[in-house]
Amino acid sequence: MTNEQNLAQIGVVGLAVMGSNLARNFASRGHTVAVYNRSAGKTEAFMAAFGETGNFISSETIEEFVASLERPRKAIIMVQAGAATDAVINQLADAMEEGDVIIDGGNALFTDTIRREKEMALRGRHFVGAGISGGEEGALNGPSIMPGGPVESWESLGPLLESIAAKVDGVPCVTHIGPDGAGHFVKMVHNGIEYADMQVIGEAYQLLRFGAGLEPAEIADIFAEWNKGDLDSYLIEITAEVLRQVDAETGKPLVDVILDAAGQKGTGRWTVKEALDLGIPTTGIGEAVFARALSSSLDQRAAAQGNLPTGALKTFEDLGISREEFIEDVRRALYASKLVAYAQGFDEIQAGSAEHDWDVDPRDLATIWRGGCIIRAKFLNRIREAYDANPELPSLLLDPYFNGELKDLIDSWRRIVIVATQLGLPAPVFTSSLAYYDSLRAERLPAAIIQGQRDFFGAHTYRRIDKEGSFHTLWSADRSEIAVES
Ligand code: NBP
């Protein structure tokens, strides 16, 4: 039912997929919702389709839209990230008043959010960058929401967002993440973890399909079975669904007719760029982003097919392992690699939080990611428990529970990396995650030789294990060592 008399508790700007679903979600929780879209046609279509399903107030101009909001006015922007978002923010800020709240629910780069918050603060407007995960289904039925911005905004916005967020054990999947860009930073890393999670599932599929020679429908059954245990997650569940799907036109498994070139919109790439700047080795996410890029290099792949020497590859039969053992090994390698990706993602969030003084609590993330979002998984409960037990945990891998799990996983993980190599099947995240794991636990790393090389060619100096200070060897002279003032 349209409601022209009352004011709206919340407004949504942008009525494409995400905005219209979010507006419907707010309305379904009993809120009156103001809606506006740049092209009036979309607003009309929205009202025609859903106007009767809740209390909506539609407007044709941004001024009308702002006038239809209760004070302090709260409007969520769900438009294309970048210039479109800037344009809408400025239009809203012009029409709004001191203390009103502008929320950007799009996938903004967190540095844009920091800039926008500063600009809005100068104009007396509150600006909240809120990461929203869960795609269109989540937006409609309950997403996971990661709002940043000033804590005062959270006080008025919190109950509204809690009402539409997914709930797990009665706990809403939303909390104030931290000031300015914290919400969008955390959403960015969430998406990065999602890339790694999807890639490790892809690698497991690849090994089962082209290593063990299983059919998509058989692998769907295996994934459905895995979904009952430690790997219980939305992504494993939907993978089983995708694998079961048969193409109506050809009668083949759908997965066999989908072009194997993965797209990306940028949040994975941002996560890795930021990790490079922070000096955090998010190798799993990095390999996942590169794997998508490689998959899309279709010309180069076509040129390489059949034209690169393989060396002596083995067949699955040569390896003499049972299918059952292999399937269980793959499951364990997947679990271990996933654990590494999450550990690295949480490391990046903690480093970002320290760098920007955000004070992000990792326990909050493990809590609000349990529902609504794409990486929702049973094992996030374990992550929450790990940080509950020790908020200063140096790495998730060192939590006693996960450490115990790793004891059970490690042999399978090593076997799978070896087998993948012998079969010539790429498993970049399985492989690089194991290299990360072995690097992390190594007593000595080859970094000592790198420091030696750097000192040799560039007098970059090195530190010693047995005394304080910086040192340089006179490589071009008598090769004696001198202490260097740092
Ligand atoms: P799109 O990202 O496809 O954006 C379309 C909307 O942006 C339309 O309402 C369009 O209005 C509006 N818009 C554009 Br384009 N330029 C504008 C401008 N200069 N001024 C005003 N409005 C403008 O929509 P979406 O897929 O619903 O996503 C919305 C946001 O949510 C994005 O930031 C996206 O990254 C994020 N997100 C999407 C998903 C997902 O699963 N799709 C998940 C999580 C987050 P028009 O009708 O007049 O052209």
From TrEMBL:
Function: Catalyzes the oxidative decarboxylation of 6-phosphogluconate to ribulose 5-phosphate and CO(2), with concomitant reduction of NADP to NADPH.
SMART domains in UniProt: 6PGD (SM01350)
GO MF terms held by the record: NADP binding; phosphogluconate dehydrogenase (decarboxylating) activity
Protein name as it appears in the record: 6-phosphogluconate dehydrogenase, decarboxylating
Homology family: Belongs to the 6-phosphogluconate dehydrogenase family.
Pfam family, one: 6PGD
Cited PANTHER family: 6-PHOSPHOGLUCONATE DEHYDROGENASE
UniProt binding sites for NADP(+): 14-19, 37-39, 79-81, 107
Keywords: Gluconate utilization, NADP, Oxidoreductase, Pentose shunt
One BP term from GO: pentose-phosphate shunt
The species this protein was found in: Corynebacterium tapiri
